[in-house]
Design goal:
The structure is a single chain. A hairpin with a 4-residue loop joins strand 4 and strand 5. Strands 1, 2, 3, 4, 5, 6 and 7 form a 7-stranded mixed beta sheet that branches. This protein starts with a helix and ends with a helix. By secondary structure, the chain is of the alpha/beta class. It has helices at 2-51, 57-70, 79-92, 99-102, 107-116, 120-133, 137-145, 148-154, 161-165, 191-200, 202-209, 256-271, 291-298, 317-335; strands at 158-159, 177-179, 213-224, 227-237, 242-252, 281-288, 305-311. Helix 1 crosses helix 3, helix 5 packs parallel to helix 7 (137-145) and helix 8 crosses helix 14 (317-335).
């Protein structure tokens, strides 16, 4: 009787806690939306006053001082923040398609996006990533520093034929390259060092991979016949509902690497995958790769897999932006 009572009470507690948490999220969202609306309207007023020569730049500073003097308990309206509100409005006033999205992320995230991103497409990309991945401000800054937008746009993923059949669901999940600067590894390192540091920094690695990746184990054991085999890192992906085997190579991609990965995927699908789950996916993470060799190796590959490369330093953002502009210019020229 006591055990049943405690069990029922525990379930009630869990339900009530979940209710509280959901309500708190709802309240925060409403407060955030109201704040963004306030900053938008204030930014609009400031912009129009300056544009119509009713106010000079010094007047906004005077307004900030007026708020401090007459309502010292109101925070967040320094002259610097008022200028940000004006910039916020002017950045998005001609882009109503972003209006609803802006209100789904905190003000600090918005200031980072509109101040650091150069185009509407880039801003939309990071806003959507903030909503989807629930980035902290630190993680958002890191992804912009790591040129996630440029890498995603430039990422011509080399996928096996089976992997292509999974598109578009896999297109936004897997990338052609991953930046692992947070590992702090030297240029010369072993696969063991790489694996050990990835596990040690697994939270940061999952931020780079994407939030739906769940880490299962390192050196995941597979027994086939009388032999034991070990997958470097094994993940589960919630959206795709499948196991993801990740094999690490600290040298350049070689076609024979695919044979090993395919063997692991076959073993996972036969012996580990549950009946309701989708076929396992393999990622071969290499230090370097020849795109043509990768294309040949994957052209007739029967398993859903891909080859990506990793970098230990933040990429040259300016170089990636120039490369992206060149590609976009070529696309526009071909459409004329």
């Amino acid at each position: 009787m006591v055990e049943n009572f405690l069990s029922d009470t525990s379930q009630d507690f869990e339900k009530l806690l979940h209710y509280i948490q959901q309500k708190q999220i709802h309240v925060f969202q409403k407060i955030n939306t109201a704040l963004i609306d306030l900053y938008w309207e204030l930014g609009k007023t400031l912009s129009e006053k300056v544009k119509n020569n009713e106010w000079g730049k010094s007047v906004i500073t005077e307004f900030a001082k007026y708020i401090t003097l007459n309502a010292p308990d109101i925070k967040g309206f320094s002259d610097k923040n008022l200028w940000r509100m004006k910039q916020f409005y002017e950045t998005y006033v001609d882009h109503p398609e972003l209006s609803a999205l802006l209100r789904e992320i905190p003000w600090t995230h918005n200031t980072i996006v509109f101040s650091r991103c150069k185009s509407t497409e880039e801003r939309m990309f990071y806003i959507k990533r903030c909503i989807c991945e629930k980035y902290s401000t630190r993680n958002l800054e890191r992804q912009i520093n790591a040129s996630l937008y440029e890498r995603t746009q430039l990422g011509d993923e080399k996928l096996s034929a089976v992997m292509r059949e999974l598109e578009p669901s896999t297109k936004h999940i897997f990338r052609n390259s991953y930046v692992l600067e947070f590992l702090g590894l030297p240029e010369e390192h072993s696969e063991s060092d790489l694996q050990k540091e990835l596990v040690k920094q697994i939270k940061k690695f999952i931020i780079e991979l994407g939030k739906d990746f769940l880490f299962i184990d390192q050196e995941y054991k597979l027994q086939v016949g009388n032999s034991d085999f070990y997958i470097d890192l094994l993940f589960y992906h919630r959206e795709l509902q499948c196991l993801v085997a990740l094999e690490l190579k600290t040298d350049k991609f070689k076609p024979e690497h695919m044979g090993q990965l395919n063997f692991y995927l076959e073993a996972l699908d036969r012996d580990v995958r549950k009946s309701h789950e989708n076929p396992s996916i393999g990622i071969l993470l290499c230090r370097d790769k020849d795109e043509e060799v990768v294309e040949y190796a994957l052209s007739r590959n029967l398993k859903p897999s891909m080859v990506a490369e990793y970098h230990l330093q933040l990429p040259d953002k300016k170089m990636l932006q120039e490369k992206l502009h060149q590609i976009l210019d070529r696309r526009e020229s071909s459409m004329k």
